[in-house]
Amino acid sequence: MNVPDVFIGSTDDAYTFVVLNRPIRGANSLLTGAGFTARKINDRTVYLLPPTPSEETNEHAGIAMYGLSARTLDVVDLSWTTRWSPQVPRPDPGIRFTLTSTTFQATATTEVARLVLEQHGFARSADGPSYQPATPLGMAHLLGAVVRAEAHAHAYGITVRVDLGISTPDAIPGAGPSSFRHRPRPPRRGTGTAPIPLTFPGA
Fold first, then answer.
1. What integer is the mean pLDDT of 19-45?
2. What is the DSSP string of 82-138?
């Protein structure tokens, strides 16, 4: 969460939140003007949007991100609330990422979903059906791999859920010592070229 300039995520109880990891001119007015509420949580400013239908959440987040994109392209959006409404039953995702400061795993429910994970550098764990990076990755590069795999999956109509392990807004962690240091920047969601064609065994 402390890697990109702007991080968008969701809590388990369906709040959408935005955190800024460097000062961005005009960001406060852009976010509050789009409907987010600024709140101090664990000594960092967090911008919150309460649970609303996904179409409304997506509209609020889109307005804010359009304004912020004029100031930075280093945006990572791993929110599920902009895709699924908290008021309706959630579909079982084809790919689920669990990504916290200490834990990572990915799971896939179909062969196509598994191929997507493998094409983005994830390998099945030796002791179970979950996936881990085939080679050790720092957090910035791990975020990049998740963003690319998620965009690829959506292009094939595969639903994706990213669980950040944050139960409520009060559990959003503080900024930590590395928030304003220079870091390699992962791609934001939706950037890059067309999806990599999937290669099926035996094709």
1. 94
2. TTS-TTSPPPPPSEEEEE-SS-EEEEESSHHHHHHHHHTTEEE-TTSS-EEESS---
